[in-house]
Amino acid sequence: MSDTQSPILKLRNIKRRFMLGETTIDALNSISLDIHAGEFLAVWGPSGSGKSTLMNIICLIDTPTAGEVTFDGQDTHLLADDELTDFRSKKLGFVFQNFNLVPVLSALENVMLPLQIQNVDEHSARERAAAALVDVGLERFKHSLPDKLSGGQRQRVAIARALVVNPKLVIADEPTANLDSENSRMVVELMREMNRARKVTFVFTTHDPRLLEHVDRKILLRDGNIESDEVGA
Ligand SMILES: Nc1ncnc2c1ncn2[C@@H]1O[C@H](COP(=O)(O)OP(=O)(O)O)[C@@H](O)[C@H]1O
Ligand SMILES: [Mg+2]
Asked: Cα(75)–Cα(33) distance, rounded to whole angstroms?
C-alpha cells in the first residue's frame, strides 16, 4: 500500500485506566481507529466520555495502558523519550482550549516558537510565522500581545502556531470551549479552510453538536467507547 493510502494514525485496542486510590477509572475501553491524510474529523460526546484522554494519547503526551499507537508508520511504543519529543514537535500541531499563548510575546513571536524549538534560523522563522498569520487573517495584529486580542483572535494565533511547522496532524481539544457561538463557528470554519486549502488533517473534540455540520466524519464517544463513527456531514 502506498503512503497516501496508509493511515497517518492507527489506534488498536487502546485502553486507558486511571487508578485513584482504591478507585479504578476506565477512561478508554477498547478504541480502534484509523485516521487518514486530509481528514477533518470531530470526536464528540458528553463531558467525561474520554475525549481528552483520547487526544492525549493521539498526540503522544500520554501512553495507553494497553494497545498500539502507530503514527506515520512508526510504532510509537518503540520510540525513546527524546525521539518521541522530536517526533511530536515535527509531526504534530496542537490547539488548546485555553489558547496557551505566551502572554509576554507578540502574536508573531508566539507563532515563531515551535520553529525556534526546531532550531530554524531567526530570519526564516520570522518569515514563516508572518506568512502563517496572514493565512489566518491576522497580519495586522502580528505585533499585538495576546491580551490585546479577542478570544477568537487568540485562537487564530494558536492555529497559526500549530500550522507553522507543517504538521502531519493537528489535534485540537475543545478549541471552542472558551468562545461564544459566533467565534466558535469562525474557528471551526478556519480549520476547515486550512484543511481544504492546505490538506492539513485535523482532529478536534467538542461537546457542542452544532459544530458537527462542518466535519467529514464524526466519532461519538460514550463512557470510553466509540458509540458511532459516521462519515459524511
Ligand atoms: N489524570 C486522570 N486521573 C484520573 N482520572 C482521570 C484522569 N484524566 C481523566 N480521568 C477520568 O477519565 C474519564 C474521562 O475523562 P476525559 O478524557 O477528561 O473526558 P472528556 O474530555 O470527554 O470530558 C473521566 O471519568 C475522568 O474523570
Ligand atoms: Mg476534555
From this structure: 15
In DSSP terms, 199 is beta-bridged to: none
The distance of Cα 98 from the centroid of its chain, to the nearest Å, equals 13
Local structure of 82: helix, strand or coil: helix
Cα(153) to ligand 2 centroid in Å equals 22
Check if 89 has its Cβ closer than 6 Å to any atom of ligand 1: no
Of all protein residues, the one whose alpha carbon is nearest to atom 14 of ligand 1 is: 50
**Domains of the chain, CATH where assigned:** 38-66+79-231 (3.40.50.300)
Gap between the Cα atoms of 103 and 136, Å rounded: 19
Q: What is the pTM of this model?
A: 0.93
Q: What is the mean pLDDT of residues 178-187?
A: 94
Q: Which residues of 171-200 are buried (b: 16+ CB within 10 A; e: fewer)?
A: bbbbbbebbeeebbbbbbebbeebbeeeeb
Q: Would the CA dihedral through 64, 66, 72, 77 be positive or negative? A: positive
Instruction: Look at residues 85, 91, 86 and name the one whose alpha carbon lies nearest to residue 162.
Output: 91
Average model confidence (pLDDT) for the chain?
94
